[in-house]
């Protein structure tokens, strides 16, 4: 087991950090306050190869590895949770399923534009009646009479990047199957839908507690017509594709949680070394020291889980449980650590003058999206064979 | 056309400045960065490369860890890197350094349409001597303090940033230009660039590599070949807090005059 980063990974971390400090941090407050999607930042990240980090160069990617991607999301989240999730959703939930399941034609058509950041990607699974119960899908996809086009009908909600994405991975019901015992089951498939496809539209933008600059919207498909060759993966294998995609997505969200917690600790260390009460810097009080020691220890443990899951994905080892554990632990740690950071700041921490209250609001979502903490526990226990 | 850029790894003076007991700087205890003016020279070279497709070679003289800096410059888009490093070169002042760098540049090869770029000065020594001395030793024209560089064939138009204004000069290649950090905003390394940084051409020139050059003589390089001797370096004593005079212009002026008068300074 090697806990050392490669020279390239060390250099990448330095570059991500410089970029985050100089380009992302100065905008973070405005992004939150004005619910502003940081379009210019996305363009800059695209230019630097941050929108396709672990995909091969032949598809327009940067040719790095999954851990290098996780570190990117982590460094961005240290200063801005919104910017971090844009990269995470785009990479894990749109580029990855196309790279892992697409035909040669689909990969050639979509990946160069997505990995170069010319196009932004999103993923639509959740519906008003199908959240954690993802099998409860209502969106349908039917082949037309000539068998040339799929016709999609239904709606998706809470879709990250929706307002700015060009390409969407959409999960829909393509039929009903009956098993040997005569029980019926929905046949679920995955599709690639483009923003400009007829019958496709982006609906209501959600106002959120945190990651407020992230574009979270409804997707509406009304007789949305897409060519037959937009089916992603095999027909009827869409649910497995969605679950496998979310396994990868969890590494991204766990990295986001990790960065949020670490960012809050950096802010708290700087603040407690300056703030004077009772004639002493508050960093001189044992409570502050012990709090920060516990906070850092938790985030360090989270980092090991996240990096280990990323390395297993990179090495094509089973990583579903690892990603679930990483996300569960990192998200709960981030919520706890950011809350404690606000406490260390006292009244100032509760104001928008300092970034820790934003980090606390941003951290909460990591316990919810791409599978709630409860779902992660279901994944972990089922991997343990506990039924 | 080829661009040769000289760069130096310097202590990060924005962090902790460590001084040893003998008064010399404790470089090992300080973080290192690429000298700001040199980064501007690298960025200028990369912009010319973006426009013309020419090759960019970076050269640095320094200890083996300077490789990290050179790899980062390769990650920004430079094509080749040369580290000039040998025990014999240690302790060199600006004169000796320019002897060695000029020899290294000759080894890389200077063609008719090449340009050598340097930073104006390094933040640790602040001499601004190495670039001009290299030009003299290579017998090429030099233009210092470049705030804008335009290349058209073998003619380079350089806008010099002077204390009281700008001066625009035209110069023929091969030439040497020293750059100020106001010249541009250096780009970031890219993810793809970092992944290629360790597979791009990288060479180390030691004493053996350069010893046949007439500029390289044990009496003209290293500590022995350096006419400059640093007597002492120290942190200046910390000044006390200043006094801010409040009030409108005239009122503040009167207060100031009264204070200066009380101290018998006017």
Please describe what this structure looks like:
The complex is a heterodimer of chains A (387) and B (266). Chain A has 387 residues and is α+β, with helices and mostly antiparallel strands. Chain A has eleven helices and ten strands. In chain A, β9 (276-277) and β10 form a beta hairpin. The mean pLDDT of chain A is 97. With 266 residues, chain B is of the alpha/beta class. Chain B starts with a strand and ends with a helix. The mean pLDDT of chain B is 91.
N-to-C series of helices and strands of chain B: EEEHEHEHEHEEEEHEHH
- Strand content range of chain A: 15-25%
- Uncertain runs of chain A are none
Overall shape of chain A? globular
Most strands sheet of chain B = 9 strands, mixed
Query: Strand sequence of the main sheet of chain A, in spatial order?
Result: 1-4-5-8
The tally of strands of chain B reads 11
Can you tell me the overall shape of chain B?
globular
Q: Distance between termini of chain A?
A: 32 Å
In short:
By secondary structure, chain A is α+β, with helices and mostly antiparallel strands. In chain A, 51% of the residues lie in helices and 17% in strands. The longest helix of chain A has 35 residues, at 238-272.
């Amino acid at each position: 087991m090697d806990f050392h980063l490669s020279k390239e990974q060390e250099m990448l971390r330095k570059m991500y950090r410089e970029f985050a400090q100089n380009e992302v941090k100065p905008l973070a407050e405005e992004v939150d306050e004005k619910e502003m999607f940081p379009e210019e930042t996305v363009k800059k990240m695209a230019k630097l190869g941050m929108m396709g980090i672990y995909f091969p160069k032949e598809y327009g990617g940067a040719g790095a590895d999954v851990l290098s991607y996780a570190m990117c999301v982590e460094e961005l989240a240290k200063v801005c949770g919104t910017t971090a999730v844009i990269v995470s959703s785009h990479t894990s939930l749109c580029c990855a399923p196309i790279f892992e399941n697409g035909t040669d034609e689909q990969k050639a058509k979509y990946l160069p534009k997505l990995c170069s950041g010319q196009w932004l990607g999103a993923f639509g699974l959740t519906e008003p009646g199908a959240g954690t119960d993802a099998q409860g899908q209502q969106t349908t996809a039917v082949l037309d009479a000539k068998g040339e086009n799929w016709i999609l009908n239904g709606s998706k909600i809470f879709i990250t990047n929706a307002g700015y994405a060009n390409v969407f991975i959409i999960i829909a019901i393509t039929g009903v199957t009956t098993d040997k015992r005569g029980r019926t089951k929905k046949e679920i498939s995955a599709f690639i839908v483009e923003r400009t496809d007829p019958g496709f539209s982006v609906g209501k933008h959600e106002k959120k507690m945190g990651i407020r600059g992230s574009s979270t919207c409804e997707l509406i498909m009304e007789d949305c017509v897409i060519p037959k060759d937009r089916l992603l993966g095999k027909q009827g294998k869409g649910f497995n594709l969605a679950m496998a995609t979310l396994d990868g997505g969890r590494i991204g969200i766990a990295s986001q949680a990790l960065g949020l917690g670490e960012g809050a600790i950096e802010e708290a260390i700087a603040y407690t070394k300056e703030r004077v009460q009772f004639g002493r810097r508050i960093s001189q009080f044992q409570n502050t020291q012990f709090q920060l020691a516990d906070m850092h220890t938790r985030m360090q443990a989270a980092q090991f889980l996240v990096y280990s899951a990323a390395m297993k994905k990179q090495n094509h080892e089973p990583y579903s449980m690892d990603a679930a554990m990483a996300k569960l632990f990192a998200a709960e740690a981030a919520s706890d650590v950011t809350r404690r950071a606000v406490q260390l700041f006292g009244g100032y921490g509760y104001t928008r003058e300092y970034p820790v209250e934003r980090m606390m609001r941003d951290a909460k979502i990591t316990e919810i999206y791409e599978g709630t903490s409860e779902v992660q526990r279901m994944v972990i226990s089922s991997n343990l064979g506990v039924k | 056309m080829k661009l040769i850029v000289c760069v130096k790894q310097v202590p990060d003076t924005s962090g902790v400045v460590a001084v040893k007991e003998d008064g010399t700087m404790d470089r090992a205890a300080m973080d290192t960065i690429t000298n700001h003016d040199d980064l501007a020279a690298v960025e200028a070279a990369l912009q010319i490369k973006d426009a013309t497709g020419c090759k960019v070679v970076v050269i640095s003289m320094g200890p083996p860890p300077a490789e990290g800096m050179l790899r980062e410059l390769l990650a920004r888009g430079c094509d080749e890197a040369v580290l000039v490093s040998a025990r014999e070169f240690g302790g060199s002042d600006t004169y000796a350094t320019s002897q060695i760098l000029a020899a290294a540049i000759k080894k890389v090869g200077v063609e008719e349409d090449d340009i050598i770029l340097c930073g104006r000065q390094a933040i640790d020594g602040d001499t601004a001597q190495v670039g001009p001395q290299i030009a003299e030793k290579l017998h090429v024209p030099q233009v210092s303090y470049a705030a804008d560089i335009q290349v058209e064939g073998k003619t380079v138009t350089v806008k010099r940033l002077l204390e009281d204004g700008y001066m625009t000069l035209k110069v023929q290649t091969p030439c040497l230009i020293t750059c100020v950090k106001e010249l541009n905003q250096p780009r970031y390394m890219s993810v793809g660039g970092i992944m290629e940084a360790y597979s791009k051409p990288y060479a180390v020139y030691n004493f053996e590599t350069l010893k046949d050059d007439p500029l390289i003589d044990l009496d003209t390089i290293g500590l022995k070949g350096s006419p400059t001797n640093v007597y002492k370096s120290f942190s200046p004593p910390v000044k006390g807090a200043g006094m801010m005079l409040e009030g409108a212009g005239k009122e503040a002026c009167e207060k100031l005059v009264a204070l200066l008068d009380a101290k018998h300074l006017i």
